[in-house]
Specification:
The protein has 74 residues and is mainly alpha-helical. Helices cover 66% and strands 0% of the residues. The chain is built from three helices and no strands. It is elongated, with a radius of gyration of 29 Å. The model has no long low-confidence stretch (mean pLDDT 81).
Length: 74
Amino acid sequence: MGGIQGWHLVIIVILALLLFGAPKLPGLARSVGQSLRIFKSEVRQMKDDDKAPAAGDETVEGKIVDPDRRENNA
């Protein structure tokens, strides 16, 4: 009752052949592989972004300008 056994895989392969046909299976496998590669790279990029310091953590120095005084000088 646990897990997929060998005969389960045989049934899945037979169903895939019936549904998609033998000529289309290599293209289907290629597109699934491409999708997995893209997903892995996105996950890796998200992990790298988490390690980088956030932009809001930096201190920015400056002075406060009164908007009324700025309009009078212009």
